[in-house]
Fold this protein.
Amino acid sequence: MKDVLAMTMAFHSIRIGIIWPDTLHYLAGGKLPSKETVGACPRRLRYLKQLFYDLDLPGYIVRYNKKRPYPTFFRHGLLQLWEELAAWKEPYVAPRGITLELRAKTCWTCPLGTEPQTRDSGAKRGLSLDDISGSSPTLPVVPCVTGLFVGRPGHRINPTTIGQMILSLPNLRSLDITLGMIRHKHRALRRELKSSLALVLETPTLQRLQRLNLALDEHAPLSHSSWTKADPEYPNGDDLGRAVCRLAQTCLEELHYSGPVSPVIFGVDPNHPHHEQKQFPRLKKLDIKFPIHTYDGRWYYNDDPSNVNRFFFHLDELQKYEYGYDYDSDWSSASDTDERHNSTRTLKFIQWWRRTVDPEMFEPLLRALVSATQRMPKLCALKFVARNWETALYDLGIEFAGGGVQANFLYHSLISGPLVAKPKWVVMRGLKMKWDLPENIRRMMQEQAGGNAAILDSDGYWMDLALGIGVGMWSGIEMQGGFVLTERRLFPPDIH
């Protein structure tokens, strides 16, 4: 097993490579120290800020090796890392602590025509610390780690194991969790992992967490006729959303969330006698991106299927771009191997017919969002984006930027100073999206932001304006203390 350890110093970076068990890597002609050597050097520890740790698991041939020798190597590597970090303590470690980025990956040997990224999209619960008997070792306490990034590109790590890591980090202030994509047909597994992740967010060591980034990597099914069993308790059955909401009521200052949402995440309980509303006293930044379906299979978008033409993809071609998605409208339970063989000779008809907002589903969610901002006294920036599968043609974005904060949906060079100084709401639509902001929600926005606030209503293909994609021209007209913003955007002919 090979461990790769990298650390970012205060003013420069030093790459440390370890091939288990001896140090064999060299950089610029000099021998690199092992992680034990780094831990034994107070000077190195004092300036250590960020530490990247890759667990390279042994590779195998995907088609033939059904028994994957991961758990033993993963458990051994993680325990060894934790034991070493537990010995890194003050005064040798700076009071600011260390940010640890951990991932597990494999050197893959794949059959021709298959994509290695699909490895964790099937019915796999992820890497765990459990041994054959089901027992799990206790991780030692690591006081020096104040930031944890886990689950980024690589193998999925089971949420229960992530919870064990968090429980051993009493000084954690920043947490970044990425839960690898799970195919829609594995409904039971999706519910299980989300419930486990909700329990992770209840860990006592998170009560002083200041920043949370939770990415579920979940997209709407390609078949817009798909439907799961609706939850009769909706939205109260959203355990993960409720756990995120509880955490946001503590010391959390920054929340990034990517995954299905419901009004519960904003602290509104529609079944409570007094419509109980939660307070978010310290939240300053909120960034939510969500697919157009709910956790139980309802849809925020609707339309008439007869008005939308069908088209077809060869599944092999489709998998090159959107691997791991649910290509079967009947939510087939076929194995991953069967899918690989069948996809080589199958054409799949696709009909993305949900292209307009369903007011009965979407407006309660938007009201809950705007209502929640009234209970965020320190809120400076908010982004709320509904992502449809077709790039951004039918996406819908809502943004709030406080006074003196630049809105990411707007071009910096085309917004005047007085507008930047005002609190502002921005509504952005995809190029083909048709939707008007309801007047009652507009009034709520005005009430939340104050009488001199700017409410900007924009039409156009925004994709991701924070990246500066596209060319546009803006004009603004001041009306009743606010702004109505219109947009003309220039694109190559093929986009139209």
